[in-house]
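Methods — Computational structure assignment.
A single polypeptide chain was analysed. Its primary sequence is given first, followed by the predicted tertiary structure written as structure tokens.
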Amino acid sequence: MGQAKSRGSREQRIEAAVALQEALKPTEMICNECGGAISGGDIYMQNTRNMPGVDMACSGVCPQCKSVTWGFKGTEQGVAALSAAIASEHPDVIGSVQAYTNKS
């Protein structure tokens, strides 16, 4: 267990990971289709485990037009790779991706 043990118990590490994801979750997104507001209750966090360079990924369902808008946070390369992967699997979402990259 080595380094993981020094970061706390398994439960503590899970708690910390969940807290980090919640802290990164946007409170609001703007729909890329109609420009409507997508509030926190309509924003869903996506699993970013094993996605290098991606700190956060979420999708939001617009209550007005029912389209899906994606949001990402991470490095430029990580966000670009995830955007390309989603676009290749779901060509209909091209153009509906909001990408935010870390400047640090």
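Note: Residues 10-24 form the longest helix (15 residues).
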